[in-house]
Design goal:
alpha/beta; Rossmann fold; four-stranded parallel β-sheet; 15 strands; about 15% strand
Length: about 450
């Protein structure tokens, strides 16, 4: 009998998060204050983040111990399984070996609780009682509501309007765990009202939802802002994925040639890839590929510039690949990948040539998802479909070259509450949304001159 699952015991779960800033060949680019354009200080960030997380945002310590209280919650689903995709390999007739790290086993059905839990813990520890946040597809909003409920925090979620309408069961998950959820843009904030004044029918974007959540947090002393991707401390928490994967690949007696993750803001890609980048810096010959939709091609067609993380310009300025903070992505079903910017750490790794980026249409990634679901049996999230498709593409490319590669990808979540997306694809109604250069140029025009 072939081994399909590689499972770590709870006692063998990694006890530390990995901080890539300790090993980057070049220091991270400075984060700038939106008003002064000078490097931000911890005090600049304190109105919306607890000091515990601010310290993690800037530290150069290589490994950060995971608190016991966080480990206790992690143990509800971690260690997450690593699978050898025997049936997918058979279905696509490849000579390559394909593995996937499955994050859909968490209570929220995605990788997002890996950072939601510590963020809720540190906010509670520092005396805060409320959190505001944004969510694209609803995975992050539901994860933070789960974590907030566990630590006794009230969570308010600004959910991108198009996803609020497409994914009603994500809304229900948020409310089941005690969170409030509103379709963004709303009339509850100045940021939201400004957008609605320009476009009453706005479908929303993560940039808009971030503005609303940050604005509310900054105006209330008992409230902090919580972000599900992009920032350094978020990516730090996600490295539990890659640290587990390294141990599990050793159990399999294998080592990947190619590591793949879907990319929106950077959290699940970095979660798997950053621990492997540590090994690459030490001499390993890995290819690491971030995969995004052609409808929001931040890494593949964006510009590497300082830009705001939100539409209203309330966030600090970060050096990243960006389509411009005013960019409005089409309403694709992979709502978690509809972000104009990218993690500054991931962006710098791409700029310096340590990782690669690819982009695909939603129709072709759903076709690969169908092959995966019918072979492996797991129904993947629309975001995860991009990683699946890239794995299939790389396996077929290796076959054409007469090679056999070992491919590892992050299956970042399940699609059980994304059936409207599958219904759209199966009925032939799903449209592709590659962008003409003129649309990108409109977004680029909003990038500030620094």
């Amino acid at each position: 009998m072939k081994t399909t699952k590689y499972l770590l015991n709870e006692k063998d779960m990694p006890r530390n998060w990995y901080n890539i800033m300790a090993d980057m060949p070049n220091p991270p680019e400075a984060v700038l204050h939106p008003g002064t354009k000078k490097p931000v200080t911890p005090e600049d960030l304190s109105p919306i983040f607890p000091m515990s997380l601010i310290e993690q945002e800037v530290t150069s310590q290589r490994f950060i111990p995971i608190p016991d209280e966080v480990m206790d919650v992690y143990s509800l689903w971690r260690p997450a399984p690593l699978y050898r995709a025997h049936q997918l390999e058979k279905a696509i007739k490849t000579n390559s070996k394909i593995y996937y790290k499955y994050e859909g086993v968490s209570p929220a059905g995605s990788h997002k609780p890996n950072t939601a839990v510590p963020q809720a813990y540190y906010n509670k520890k520092d005396g805060f009682t409320k959190l505001t946040t944004e969510t694209g597809a609803g995975q992050w909003g539901s994860a933070l509501s789960f974590a907030g409920n566990y630590f006794g925090l009230h969570v308010k979620v600004y959910m991108v309007k198009i996803s609020y309408e497409q994914k009603p069961y994500r809304r229900s998950m948020i409310e089941t765990w005690g969170g409030e959820v509103y379709p963004s843009p709303t009339d509850k904030t100045e940021s939201g009202r400004a957008v609605l004044a320009k476009d009453p029918n706005s479908i929303g974007s993560l940039g808009i939802a971030i503005s609303e959540a940050v604005e509310e947090a900054a105006q209330n002393k008992d409230t902090n802002y919580s972000l599900g991707s992009v920032l350094n401390h978020v990516l730090l928490h996600q490295t539990i994925i890659g640290e587990e994967a390294i141990l599990q690949m050793k159990m399999a007696g294998d080592d990947p040639d190619i590591i793949i993750g879907c990319h929106g803001g950077g959290s699940n890609f970095a979660g798997l890839a950053f621990p492997y980048l540590r090994e690459k810096f030490a001499g390993k010959n890995y290819r690491l590929i971030a995969v995004e939709p052609k409808a929001c091609p931040t890494l593949t067609r964006g510009k590497y510039e300082y830009d705001f993380g939100d539409v209203a310009g309330l966030t600090p300025l970060i050096k990243m690949y960006t389509l411009g903070h005013d960019f409005m992505p089409p309403g694709i079903h992979a709502g978690g990948l509809r972000y104009h910017g990218a993690s500054p750490l991931t962006s710098q790794m791409l700029k310096e040539g340590y990782i690669e980026a690819q982009s695909y249409e939603q129709g072709e990634v759903f076709q690969s998802a169908l092959v995966f679901a019918r072979s492996e049996g797991i129904l993947p999230a629309p975001e995860s479909n991009h990683a699946i498709h890239a794995a299939v593409v790389e396996a077929r490319k290796a076959d054409q070259e007469g090679k056999s590669k070992t491919i590892l990808f992050n299956l970042s979540g399940h699609g059980h509450v994304d059936m409207a997306a599958y219904t759209s694809f199966l009925s032939g109604k799903m449209a592709d949304s590659a962008l003409p250069e003129s649309v990108l140029e409109e977004g680029f025009a909003s990038i500030p001159k620094i």
